[in-house]
Amino acid sequence: MEYTTLGNTGTTVSKLCFGTWRFGKESGGTVETNREEARALLDEAWDAGINFIDTANVYGDPDGTSERWIGEWFADRDHHREDLVIASKVYFPFDGRGEPGPNDSGLGRKHIRAQVEGTLDRLGTDYLDLYYIHRWDDDTPIRETLRTLTELVREGKVHYLGASSMAAWKLTKALWESDVEGLERFDVTQPMFNAADTDAVAGYLEVCADQDIAVCPYSPLAGGFLTGKYERAEDGTVIAPDGSRGTLTDLFEDRYTSETAWNVLEAVESVADEVDATPAQVSLQWLMAQERFTCVPIVGARTPEQLAENVGAVEVDLDDDQFERIDEARGGAGGGYR
Fold first, then answer.
1. Which among 157, 215, 183 has a CA at the least distance from the CA of 8?
2. Alpha-carbon gap, residue 92 to 41, rounded angstroms
3. Which residue has the higher pLDDT, 179 or 258?
4. Whole-angstrom Cα distance, residue 12 to residue 35?
């Protein structure tokens, strides 16, 4: 494993982050990753040198399952807390005490305070290395949210702050508020960013590059599309293997399989042949090779074998031509910085 400094922070993380959103998650009556599988994946990640783990208070069914399983795994292993960098999130309604009440969601002081305590308890730790706002809260002034998060940092319950999905102008507004009010800033972002997805992410990434904010993209393999396991039927639909994401959700084709995405996949597969790697490894390395900001993809493998393949991406080397061919296949969507 190779390591990098997380943006403008003083914390060093593995070049891949292990995402645990599948832990205990039910899709169409199927549990994507059960407890035993989760522990095997965490063992594989640890053995591979991954020290960065991503979760959220609402991951799993019921909510909190992912955090609890990580805490149980950690308690059963002879690991030092300082060896792990753990990230979690807050925003969505938490169903841990039944029907959500009026203050059981969002980024108000009351909800953040309640949720961080539950997260720390389930993880069995005194602090989080990174705490994300899972979404932007239009109903709560960003000043209140940032003041509450700043208190958590100064109390030692949180080391750094992160922001997940939001518009570029909202991220800029939050950074301005932090600077003007002397509050803690967002040091890490978590947008959906991958070679195949060409939604308007370029402006957001420009802010991250300018402000030296680390980018930890989720869905770096476009829901598995960039692994090359999906085929295009004559009518343009997707032929998906049984049990894959494409068969578990109706949103897959609309979200990941545009005409541009197929062009990107073709470029990725061509480069993979040249460098003797898998399409997944090339796609992950394309993200890690971003130069204008630290980019640490969040991988959420289903099996230890898939995770081992993902880890192999660290050893892949793309030259400028290969990097740019993939970027050009995106149709000038932006976001590729080399």
1. 215
2. 26
3. 179
4. 28
Q: Find how far residue 272's CA is from the centre of its chain.
A: 24
Domains within the chain, CATH numbers bracketed: 3-190 (3.20.20.100)
Report the C-alpha gap between 51 and 82 in whole angstroms. 10
Whether 91 is catalytic is: no
Residue 321 neighbours by CB distance under 10 Å: 9
* Of 59, 131, 218, 230, catalytic: 59
Token reading at 332: 């000038």
SS3 labels along 232-258? ECCCCCEECCCCCHHHHCCCHHHHHCC
Q: How far apart, in Å, are the Cα atoms of 31 and each of 7, 69, 125, 236?
A: 35, 14, 26, 29
Backbone Cα Rg of the chain: 19
Per-residue pLDDT tens over the stretch 211-256: 999 999 999 999 888 998 777 766 556 766 665 555 445 555 566 6
